[in-house]
Amino acid sequence: MAITWKDIPGYEGHYQASSDGRVRSLDRTVSMGRGGHTKKIRGCILRPTVERDRWGHLKVGLRRDGKTVTRRVHSLVMLAFVGEREDPSLVTCHGDGNPANNHLCNLRYDTQSNNSLDAVRHGTHPTGSKTHCPKNHEYTAENTLVRPRGEGRFSRTCLTCKRAAGRKGP
């Protein structure tokens, strides 16, 4: 499959995103202060850094009008190829659960709830992949109470711990 580059809206002529999840700057001339001097800047593929959060998304810094703004790579790819989210409550989701895989075919706009369900399915959800409760009782179908918490969210309760808590007296 051929790699396609598209301008990032708001940064046309300065930055582009690719269908394989990269961001590049373009060759351009910038003014250097009040004297009217200019400087040619050669474009290059930007080296992303990893966000210091529990998810590990890739981010890059984009410079315009003397200010640098840090943006997540997956958001820039979706913005360039799909456009703005129709609904501001939607988030950008990674189909395979890997926040470093920013290929266009791996990204989609979806609800936060569906993004969390994806994380459980991939085994990357911080609590969805746990097999035992804090007291080390196994989460099995017979030992787990699953309750809806609203908006597609659920909570799990260990029935062994629940029974033990009910037996405690004053």
TrEMBL record:
Residues 5-52 form the NUMOD4 domain. InterPro entries: His-Me_finger_sf (IPR044925), NUMOD4 (IPR010902). It holds the Pfam family NUMOD4. One of its GO terms (molecular function) is hydrolase activity, acting on ester bonds. This is NUMOD4 domain-containing protein. The lineage of its organism: Bacteria, Bacillati, Actinomycetota, Actinomycetes, Propionibacteriales.
